[in-house]
Design a protein that fits this description.
By secondary structure, this protein is α/β, with parallel strands linked by helices. The chain has 15 helices and 12 strands. The structure holds pyridoxal-5'-phosphate.
Length: about 400
């Protein structure tokens, strides 16, 4: 017998559904793929050089807990990025390198969801729409997903004040994504602090996915660690108690294939993430850890990449005007366009424009008869400026 949680509860991953949606259409002559959030720019040369240089270390098992140098580079970056003073974060206790943030947002399910909470199946709160791995983690850890709509009505950030007390009591884990995939909304510092407080009061762990934290159009997004540190009341516990954040080099450094990210925050949770990794995770190869340390220490390439995304948003705005309700998101690299019927428009864009996008409804679940993504398409601005110009022009013609 196969685990039905996997076989039947997790059988509609968005890209499989997209494949089925357009399976009957001929493949266009020069397709432009904007459905996947995979930056197409080059991995910085200095990181590639480190990987080649250090390949000879591959006869050794890499340390699960990360090399001391990588952990130190991550802490130094967190300090710079979020204005955290020296000595607050301990590289050995507060951070753990991961094989991409995906590993972490999945593993936190196993770490945070107990067999029962308040005498019932524990709840995992998930923003809606959402990165699908949160659901995988909730379901496979035995949690009950509760979807929290993030739509235009609440600025694309879930309203946790609306959660009933008995739901909070059963909640073991709360996911937040800021900047959000797909809509690019950013949680403010007060929003984060209120949510941290709510989680602490209800014995829930807050997992904040910050993998788009370096891609933003205006001011840099606030972070969960920064928010926790600025709160004064932890009852003598670690300042990051009950909070973890996830980061990645995939978007920040055009390095999705390196599989490199980290979790940081509550040392108890970080220790359990390490235990999880010891039993079931994968170590990050030493050359990749070394290249990652170099990438976290460098800001120049990140500024270049951020500038490239900004130019693409300006271009999209100049071509689309207000078609599809165009708005420039605070962060991330997706257009979230209100096209009325996301699936129908996805088919047309593929058949008539040769552009592959993702129907927004595939990233969300229906609540009270409404899927908050159904009217939208998600367009990943991951190509160079000229390819982006071609694609957006074709989209504008067809909207
Ligand atoms: C919201 C979100 N979280 C996490 C990830 C995982 O990224 P990675 O494992 O490459 O760090 C992605 C990838 O697209 C994402 O969109």
């Amino acid at each position: 017998m196969i685990n039905p949680r996997l076989e039947t509860d997790l059988n509609d991953y968005p890209f499989a559904r997209l494949g089925a949606l357009i399976a009957d259409l001929p493949v266009p002559a020069q397709p432009i793929i904007m459905s996947v959030g995979e930056p197409q720019g080059p991995v910085p040369q200095f990181a590639r050089d480190v990987v080649s240089r250090d390949l000879a270390t591959s006869n050794r098992y890499p340390p699960n807990q990360g090399t001391p140098d990588l952990c130190a580079a991550i802490v130094a970056w967190l300090q710079r990025r979020y204005g955290i003073a020296d000595g607050v974060l301990d590289p050995a206790r507060h951070v753990l390198p991961l094989a991409g943030s995906k590993e972490g947002v999945f593993a936190i399910g196993t770490v945070a969801v107990p067999p029962s909470k308040d005498g019932a199946q524990p709840i995992v709160m998930i923003p809606n729409p959402f990165y699908q791995v949160y659901l995988g983690a909730a379901v496979l850890s035995g949690g009950a997903p509760v979807f929290m709509n993030a739509d235009a009505g609440n600025g694309f950030m879930p309203d946790f004040d609306s959660v009933p007390a008995d739901t909070w009591k059963r909640t073991a884990l709360v996911y937040l994504c800021s900047p959000g995939n797909p809509q690019g909304a950013m949680a403010t510092l007060p929003y984060l602090q209120k949510l941290i407080d709510q989680c602490r009061r209800h014995g829930a762990i807050l997992a904040i996915d910050e993998c788009y934290a370096e891609i933003y159009n205006g001011a840099a997004p606030a972070g969960g660690l920064q928010a926790a540190l600025a709160m004064d009341e932890t009852g003598g516990r670690d300042p990051f108690a009950d909070v973890v954040v996830f980061h990645s080099l995939s978007k920040r450094s055009n390095a999705a294939g390196l599989r490199s990210g980290f979790v940081a925050g509550d040392p108890k949770i970080v220790a359990m993430m390490l235990r999880w990794k010891t039993y079931g995770g994968v170590q990050i190869p030493i050359p990749i850890q070394n290249a990652s340390a170099a990438l976290w220490r460098d800001e120049a390439h990140v500024e270049t990449i951020r500038g490239e995304y900004r130019a693409k948003f300006q271009l999209a705005k100049s071509i689309l005007h207000n078609k599809g309700g165009y708005f420039t998101p605070d962060g991330g690299f997706f257009l979230w366009l209100d096209v009325g019927d996301g699936q129908a428009v996805t088919r047309r864009l593929w058949a008539e424009g040769g552009v592959k996008v993702l129907p927004g409804g595939y990233l969300a679940r229906e609540i009270d008869g409404v899927n908050p993504g159904d009217r939208y398409i998600r367009v990943a601005l991951v190509h160079d400026l000229e390819t982006t110009r071609t694609a957006i022009t074709r989209i504008a013609e067809l909207l």
